[in-house]
Specification:
With about 70 residues, the chain is mainly beta. Helices cover about 10% and strands about 50% of the residues. Strand 1 and strand 2 form a beta hairpin. The two termini are about 25 Å apart.
Length: about 70
């Protein structure tokens, strides 16, 4: 797993934190019904201004951008 973060300044002058997490794991679709996993997407939607998830044969990359500071 590789995690990186940096502060970026947008065109509006507001600063945000950009966090990127990469791993070589296999993507698993969320299960339907009760489960103890699958809460990460809800947490990311709540805490981040935006986020993106890309997954493929090489692994998964998640990129989060914080709300303005």
């Amino acid at each position: 797993m590789h995690v990186s973060g940096r502060v970026v300044t947008g065109p509006d002058g507001d600063r945000r934190v950009l966090i990127t997490v990469r791993d070589g794991g296999r993507w698993r679709e969320p299960r339907s019904g009760p489960s103890s996993r699958g809460h990460g997407m809800v947490i990311m939607r709540t805490c981040a201004e935006r986020f993106a998830v890309e997954h493929g044969p090489a692994g998964t990359t998640v990129e989060l951008v914080s709300r303005p500071a």
